UniProtKB/TrEMBL annotation:
Domain (Histidine kinase): residue spans on this chain: 574-797
EC number per UniProt: 2.7.13.3
Ranges of residues in domain Response regulatory: 818-934
PAC domain mapped to chain residues: 387-439
Domain annotation PAS: ranges: 314-384, 440-510
Keywords: ATP-binding, Kinase, Membrane, Nucleotide-binding, Phosphoprotein, Transferase, Transmembrane, Transmembrane helix, Two-component regulatory system
Residue stretches spanning the membrane: 33-54, 66-86, 93-112, 132-152, 164-186, 206-227, 236-258
Stated name of the protein: histidine kinase
Length: 936
């Protein structure tokens, strides 16, 4: 590394005196020297005063010499002060220099007019009073200039002139010349009009008054300088000048008697000293400045040599750095001509320095990038630096290169931009790696965002760092609801320790961990997830992928139910078959026995009881065989509306007057292929169950509809085949069935009736008959609201499409509105949300009325409330709709229910004209009703 460094010029403290004396603060040395000179002058003055009137020999040559020396000293002083004024431009300094010029001019005129020096009466027509008055004007004008200087100066020199310094100097000189000419004319041509100051060689009383005034001006100037702090060097020596000036006036014009006495000569000496004090200080300072300048120039030459050596070595070092750099370093002119090309540039672009230097930079620029280069050169020419500019360049062999450029202007010492410096770094491989990494990150992000499984990332303490969007579908939460929270807030307490154990095992190096753990859904129910977990030591993170087992468990439960029902069916079918064999023997032999005892009434009654019991047993086995789907059926194409009307006629006397039967039949109901007798029995069984559920009376609705069960419905009901069905619904307004018993109502021998009031085979027989006929049966019930049993029978084939079917097969139309789905059944809610989203709508979901109202209050953009009518909790669907309308009068509502539309309306739960979509429904029906509701 280069060790040479520059040495700063070491200037001694005394060089500070090279500053202008009018602004340089006076030092203690200045004050001490000035005080000593004033003290000596005062002592000499005191010694001369008693002898001031002693006459001495007249020496006109002394006057000439004194005046010449005085004029020269004042002129030199004025020139030195004006040289400072040219830089400082202060009025105070200009006035002080003007005072010295005036004094010099007055001294010259005084010498010319002095009697006996050149002529007996003096030149220029002077008289005996001319020189005396000139002396007074001369010694009065200078103190006035000093007074002006004292009041105008301050610490930095005082007020500065705004115009040209040369013009100000010329004005000062011309003013002095003009003033001297005027005074000379007055004192020569008009001398007879002036008061007499000197008579017969001696001073008059007027002289005493005039000289006292002049002396007072000098004293005032001294006092002003004394009080105008801070003192500069000139201020101190001006005070010495004014002291000498006072001694001059006192000896030459006050205490002496006449010309050429001791006071006359002594005063002139004080005047000469007064003229030389400031001059001497200025000359001494100039000598010191010159000496210092010589020393400084020597040191600057030494420093310049050192700098040349330093910069030479640094230039050599920089050259070595440039040539050994890994990045290409190129210099060029502002018009793009290459002037520098290091070895890295040769390696990167394939051109040698000899090939590149002198050529245009376009040799490495693609054709479509040359405008870009022109723009860069223009920007750099405007003194702009460009950092980290990614672009493409071309090698000599034609291969494109991805490079990043750092471009700066090249400047001279004066700041002129003469070229461009460019550093090019090859990022071809880096960019390829970066692009590959970007694609991988994007792919992983897409997987993360679209995964149907739940992906979680936690830190070492179990706090969530990332949560995939699928959490909304699986747990009903948003990712931000979990991020930053501990997993313990969401895991089922019974599975918490097991989860912690799996996390600890993963951190011990057991990479893949598979386990099950339950999490809490937003609505409170448990969701079982199968987890695959791993730990990453470099990033200190746990990574988990959880698969929702809800559908799997539901399917398994449904499969177990089907298997159970099949097993029970096999068992009951076998028992019924064997029991039928026994009953065949009993019923066959009881007739013979009855004939034999016909003449014995008591035995005939017994045989009648046995025959009745056998008949009841036959009916029982018939029901068992129906449930087991082993009864002999005689299916044929029937009109379900006609059969329903016949059944209604049979029901009127059976149900009693307290039950109102309300048939609601679709006019264009499809024909069904079914055993009419078994269907009639099924309807009667359902009606009798409805009657038992309404001991105090009520309404029974008998309804038919054409229904299409789609793939979505089939996915939630494993025994359903998608297709067209004729629905026959039997609905009541009875007590309803508790939710926990719904899954058991089709089990044989299960009943909620009192002992002796039912065998528990009625619904089982209906279930078996419908399944044996290839159909589907669904029961909807809510405690306190009634029950609706729907039988779905396959549509008979070979018939023409009806008007109803044609209306259902119109093209599906969706939308982009926002819909709030309120459904307490999680599986159904998930299905509905999926269908609505597939139609293009934005779907929000809630499990109950309370959640729905919270969402309605928080989101003003909801267009439609799609709610189930019967829901657990303090508020049902109708009450929710009323409250929502109160809060948001413009909000539209569409109801849905497992009950049929006619049953709901006639139960009094909905007003006439209110829109209801009965479950189940196909996608086209959902789309049509949504558009109808949104347009209402």
């Amino acid at each position: 590394m280069l060790k040479t460094h520059l040495q700063d010029v070491d200037l001694p403290a005394t060089t500070d005196r090279s500053a202008f004396l009018s602004t340089l603060p006076a030092t203690q040395t200045d004050r001490t020297a000035a005080t000593a000179i004033v003290g000596v002058s005062a002592v000499l003055f005191a010694l001369a005063v008693p002898f001031a009137g002693i006459p001495l020999l007249p020496m006109p040559a002394f006057v000439a010499s004194y005046q010449s020396a005085l004029a020269v000293a004042d002129i030199v002083t004025a020139v030195l002060l004006l040289s400072q004024f040219v830089v400082l431009r202060t009025r105070a300094l200009l006035l002080l220099a003007t005072g010295y010029l005036f004094t010099a001019a007055a001294a010259l005129v005084h010498a010319l007019t002095f009697p006996g020096l050149f002529t007996p009466t003096g030149l220029l027509g002077a008289g005996p009073q001319t020189t005396v008055w000139l002396y007074m004007i001369w010694h009065g004008a200078f103190p006035l200039c000093v007074l002006a200087y004292a009041w105008l100066k301050d610490a930095d020199g005082g007020v500065r002139i705004a115009g040209s310094a040369t013009k100000a100097i010329c004005a000062s000189v011309l003013g002095v010349v003009a003033a001297i000419i005027v005074f000379t004319w007055i004192l020569t041509a008009g001398r007879d009009m002036l008061p007499v100051l000197l008579r017969d060689g001696r001073y008059t009383q007027v002289m005493i008054g005039v000289v006292s005034f002049v002396w007072s001006l000098s004293f005032a100037a001294l006092v002003s300088l004394w009080f105008r702090r801070p003192y500069s060097v000139i201020d101190v020596w001006l005070m010495v000048v004014m002291c000498a000036w006072l001694f001059d006036i006192a000896l030459s014009a006050i205490v002496n008697v006449a010309r050429f006495d001791l006071g006359f000569y002594a005063g002139r000496l004080y005047g000469l000293c007064a003229a030389t004090f400031v001059l001497a200080v200025l000359l001494i300072e100039n000598v010191r400045l010159q000496s210092h300048t010589v020393r400084l120039v020597g040191r600057l030459r030494q420093q310049s040599a050192s700098e040349r050596d330093y910069y030479g070595k640094r230039l050599a070092l920089y050259g070595a750095v440039v040539e050994s750099a890994n990045d290409a370093i190129i210099t060029k002119t502002l018009d793009g001509i290459i002037t520098g090309w290091n070895k890295a540039a040769e390696r990167l672009f394939g051109y040698s320095a000899a090939e590149a230097i002198g050529k245009s930079i376009d040799i490495i620029v693609p054709q479509d990038r040359r405008a870009e280069v022109r723009g860069i050169l223009n920007r750099v020419g405007s003194n702009e630096s460009i950092a980290q500019h990614e672009t493409v360049r071309i090698r000599k062999d034609g291969r494109p290169l991805d490079v990043v450029l750092n471009i700066s202007p090249l400047k001279t010492d004066s700041g002129e931009i003469i070229g461009v410096s460019k550093i090019a770094h090859d990022i071809t491989e880096e960019k390829q790696s970066r692009e590959k990494l970007r694609r991988e990150i994007e792919e992983r992000q897409r997987i993360f965002e679209t995964s149907q499984d739940l992906i979680l990332v936690t830190d070492g303490y179990g706090n969530f760092i990332q949560v995939s969007p699928s959490v909304k579908e699986i747990l009903g939460l948003n990712p931000e609801d979990m991020i930053g929270h501990s997993a313990t807030e969401f895991i089922h307490p019974d599975d918490l320790e097991k989860t912690r154990g799996e996390m600890r095992a993963a951190r011990r190096g057991q990479i893949k961990r598979s386990f099950e753990a339950r999490y809490y859904h937003y609505d409170g129910h448990e969701v079982t997830l199968n987890w695959m977990g791993t730990w990453s030591e470099p990033v200190k993170r746990h990574f988990f992928i959880g698969r929702d087992l809800t559908d799997k468990q539901a399917a398994e439960a449904q499969l177990r139910q089907v298997q159970k029902m099949d097993a029970i069916g096999q068992l009951t079918g076998g028992v019924a078959h064997d029991f039928n064999n026994v009953l065949t023997v009993i019923t066959g032999t009881i007739g013979i026995l009855g004939d034999a005892v016909a003449d014995r009434p008591e035995l005939a009654a017994i045989t009648k009881l046995i025959d009745d019991a056998a008949e009841r047993g036959a009916q029982l086995t018939k029901h068992l065989l129906a449930f087991a789907r082993k009864q002999p059926l005689q299916p044929r194409e029937i009109d379900v509306n006609a059969l329903a009307l016949e059944a209604a006629k049979l029901l009127h006397p059976t149900l009693g007057e307290q039950i109102t039967i309300n048939p609601q039949l679709t006019e264009d109901a499809w024909p069904a292929l079914v055993d009419p007798n078994q269907l009639t029995s099924a309807i009667l069984n359902l009606a009798l169950n409805a009657r038992d559920a309404m001991p105090e009376g009520g309404t029974l609705v008998l309804e038919t509809r054409n229904i299409f069960l789609d793939d979505g419905y089939a996915s939630m009901n494993a025994d359903v085949t998608p297709g067209n069905y004729v629905m026959i619904a039997v609905s009541d307004t009875g007590a309803g069935i508790p939710a926990e018993l719904i899954d058991r109502v089709f089990d044989p021998f299960f009943t909620t009736k009192e002992v002796g009031k039912g065998t528990g085979l009625g619904l089982s027989m209906v279930f078996g008959f419908v399944k044996q006929s290839g159909g589907h049966v669904k029961i909807y019930s809510e405690e306190g609201h009634g029950t609706s049993v729907k039988i779905y029978l396959p549509r008979s084939s070979g018939v023409q499409e009806t008007e109803f079917e044609a209306s259902k097969n119109v093209p599906i139309t969706g939308g982009n509105e926002k819909i709030l789905i309120v459904e307490d059944d999680a599986l159904v809610r998930q299905y509905v949300v999926t269908q609505i989203k597939s139609l293009g709508y934005t779907a929000l979901e809630a499990a109950n009325a309370a959640e729905a109202l919270t969402i309605i209050d928080a989101d003003n953009g909801i267009d439609l409330l799609f709610t189930d009518i019967i829901m657990p909790g303090a508020m049902n669907g109708r009450q929710l709709a009323d409250e929502a309308a109160r809060r948001r009068p413009e909000l539209k509502t569409l109801f849905t229910s497992g009950y049929t539309e006619n049953a709901i309306v006639h139960h009094g739960r909905l007003d006439s004209g209110v829109l209801l979509l009965a479950k189940p429904y196909r996608k086209s029906e959902l789309a049509k009703m949504l558009r109808t509701a949104l347009a209402s």
